[in-house]
Every structure is written in structure tokens, then in C-alpha cells.
Predict the structure.
Amino acid sequence: MIEITGRYDGVNADRRPRERLELPFELRQKSRLRTRLASGEEAWLLLGRGEILRGGSLLLGTGGRVIEVVAQPEKLLHVECDTPRALSRAAYHLGNRHIPVEFGDGYLRLGFDHVLEQMLVGLGARVSAIDAPFEPEAGAYAGHTHVQDGASRARIHEYAKREA
């Protein structure tokens, strides 16, 4: 069994991920997890508390093995609205319920929930069920940047001090 004990910082650029760890969002929030790599090999995840694994993250396992995290597709609600104001209103009501939400250009995504689906439809949103990787907003105190399509997307929780 491989033990995965931390993130790979990429110092040795010649090391490439040879393994994949495919997990849905719910399991990418766990700091302790017994699981299997895509190859079928058993793995024991032993990370610091509060770390959220994102698709594309690189981890370091026993023997110096590099493992790539893959955001496993899961059943989601894809939400679109006719106006930015309507989409903001939908996001407000989801946030008021502390629901993890992924924000995209002109859409929201959240874990499938028929009650929330009815609420969103009642707010005038177009809602469809999809299977896709889920990368919700990390939250106000997460302290890291989400990477999508190879580009860093700064999050609202990243407050930078600027020198005058």
C-alpha cells in the first residue's frame, strides 16, 4: 500500500506523475482516507487537516512517487439565468444555505439536490442535471488559488497587502 503524505512542490521537474488518484469532491476534502489509485493499488492518504485536493494537484507518496489528483465526475446541478442579477440572486440563496458552489462564466454548479433544484427553478433559473468534475469555491478563509485550464484564478478570499 502506498502512503500519500503531502503535496509535491515540483522541485524536481523531471519527476512526472505516474499514478492518478480519482476522487469526487466529498472525498477530496478528507485528510485521512483509505482509497485506491486508478491502477487499483491501495493508497492511504495522510494529509494535514483542512487541505482540499483539487483536480491537477500533485501529491507525494512513499518512494518519491508523484500522484496526480483527478476530480472525478459526479452528478451536479448546472444553473444558468437570463441576467447576471438573476444569477447573483441564485448564488445568494445558495450561499445563505452554506452550499458548496462552483462559479463559472454565466453559470453555477452544485451537488445534485432535488429540493435546491426546485428552489432555483422557483427563482427563474434554468437548471439541468449533468455529470462533471466539481471544483467549488474554497471559501473565504481557504488561502489558496484555484487553477483551471492551466491559468491561476484568484479567489475573493485572497487579500493581498499592498505597499504604498
Remarks:
- Confidence is low (pLDDT under 50) at residues 145-164.
- The radius of gyration is 18 Å.
- The chain has three helices and twelve strands.
